[in-house]
Specification:
297 residues; alpha/beta; Aspartate Aminotransferase, domain 2; 7-stranded mixed sheet; two-stranded antiparallel ribbon; binds pyridoxal-5'-phosphate
């Protein structure tokens, strides 16, 4: 006898359970990629994505990749060989992002948080004050570190940077939290945010997102790690539509993403956050203790 029945639900942070509406939106024949229909879907996505991150001033970029691709897009567009990054560790994922930067010739320094504890803003402030030559160009931090389920206080880290009067870019990985936890990129003074499709954004794996604020866009102008495929300048909104995606668009994913973003807009972002908060406070948490439990089926 088997007790298994119905749809399989895997309670891990991602890929998460995809709502039927999103699956249904993806199940279609391929339209003309040069036609107006797909352009309208894409335009809608480029309007909605800044809203869900609380970014009003800046640009959003979509990569055809997982979150690791978004990490690489962030690194290659803002940093140069020999730059130094301060990695605020609160679990495994921040370290892996830092290792990717090191692979590209960026110097990294890891500031360790106590085991399974959030990053201490005072330690960040002290380290930045000690950086007399302003060698540190960027700070990597995770909003939710999925490996430890720790959540970091991003506004407090911003205040620490400001208290040290340090110019480093604040870059935040929201892969596990975008669409689940309150997040206000502009209001919190974040320079660059990234996410991926397969967690609280309810779309299958395959899309990465990078939100770049004015200071990240300014750093882009002199970054020497830029590569042709990920380059922000090449991904212009003015030219042919396919340039936004560096080539043929991931058509089915775009239809799915448009549907997921419509669901979020219809429910109301604040209501989505409140729902996740309510569900994550129940004893039935997912296996790893993460907070991206969903009930939008
Ligand atoms: C899942 C996750 C990643 C890795 O995403 P991939 O899509 O597997 O590359 C990175 N950071 C966080 C916080 C995550 O939860």
């Amino acid at each position: 006898m088997s007790l298994a029945g119905g749809r399989e639900h895997v309670a891990i942070p991602g890929p998460s359970v995809i709502p039927d509406r999103v699956l249904a939106a993806m199940h279609r024949s391929m339209p003309d990629i040069y036609g107006d229909e797909l352009l309208a879907v894409s335009d809608e996505i480029y309007v909605e994505l800044p809203r869900i991150a609380g970014m009003h001033d800046g640009r959003v970029f979509v990569t055809i990749s997982n979150g690791h691709g978004a990490w690489e897009m962030a690194i290659s567009n803002t940093l140069s060989r020999g730059d130094k990054v301060l990695v605020l560790e609160s679990g495994r994922f921040a370290v892996t992002w830092g290792e990717m930067a090191a692979f590209s010739g960026v110097k990294t320094e890891v500031l360790h948080a106590p085991e399974r504890r959030p990053v201490d803003p005072l330690a960040v402030e002290a380290r930045l004050r000690a950086d007399i030559t302003r060698e540190i160009k960027a700070i990597f931090v995770l909003y939710t570190d999925t490996a430890s389920s720790v959540m970091n206080d991003i506004p407090a880290i911003r205040r620490a940077i400001d208290a040290a009067v340090h110019p480093a870019l604040l870059m935040v990985d929201c892969i596990a939290s975008m669409g689940a936890e309150r997040y206000e990129m502009d209001a919190w003074g974040v320079d660059l945010t990234l996410a991926a499709s397969q967690k609280a954004l309810m779309v299958p794996p395959g899309l990465g997102f990078v939100w770049a604020g004015p200071r990240a866009l300014a750093a882009h102008r002199h970054a020497d790690l830029r590569t042709g495929y990920f380059d922000w300048t090449a991904r212009t909104l003015d030219g042919p539509h396919y340039l936004r995606y560096g080539g043929t668009m991931p058509v089915a994913h775009l239809y799915g993403l448009r549907e997921a973003l419509t669901m979020i807009r219809t429910e109301g972002l604040a209501n989505v956050w409140a729902r996740h908060a309510a569900l994550s406070s129940k004893p039935t948490r997912s296996m790893c203790g993460c907070r991206c439990v969903k009930s939008m089926l």
